[in-house]
Design goal:
The chain has 157 residues and is α+β, with helices and mostly antiparallel strands. Helix content is 41%, strand content 15%. It has a two-stranded antiparallel sheet. Strands 3-4 form a two-stranded parallel ribbon.
């Protein structure tokens, strides 16, 4: 009965990847699974694109593991560093390392993700969570994602 919707969206708030996770689990654990599921097909021939230019995330995603994963894949991390991580790094002095690069102008666009979730929750079936099975709840989330894309593409009457 307890599940969370996790998603990756493009710069316009349209969902690219929608996954369900346990409701009591942390959002951070689903991050590698979201990146692995990302596939943006190209027009015509060619492999699908699997690496975005940048990932904008809140402070919950600011871990060494996530930053290393993004660095390995060649993705720019635009993730704020929490105060406790800053304090631990400065406490260690020179051994603490450099602060991660942070682009404040790009970070201002992080609200696109929050607005995307608000668009999802405009659908009563997702906001109230009446479905008993996670499978049917995920089907509703995917249907909502399709409707968002259809609205954006102008294919609806």
């Amino acid at each position: 009965m307890s599940t969370k919707i996790h998603q990756l969206c493009d710069g316009n708030g349209r969902p690219l990847v929608v996954l369900l996770g346990p409701g009591q689990g942390s959002d951070s654990r689903m991050f590698p699974h979201l990146l692995d599921a990302l596939r943006v097909h190209r027009r015509g021939r060619g492999r699908p694109r699997t690496t975005p230019d940048a990932v904008l995330g809140d402070k919950a995603y600011s871990s060494r593991g996530h930053r290393a994963l993004l660095r390995r894949r060649g993705i720019t991390a635009v993730i704020a560093e929490p105060q406790d991580q800053k304090a631990n790094r400065t406490r260690r002095g020179a051994k603490g390392g450099r602060p991660p690069a942070f682009d404040t102008q790009r970070y201002k666009n992080r609200n696109v993700v929050e607005r995307s979730f608000n668009t999802f929750k405009q659908w009563r079936a997702l906001a109230t969570r009446y479905d008993k099975l996670a499978l049917t709840y995920r089907a509703g989330a995917l249907l909502r994602a399709v409707l968002i894309w259809l609205d954006a593409l102008g294919d609806t009457p």
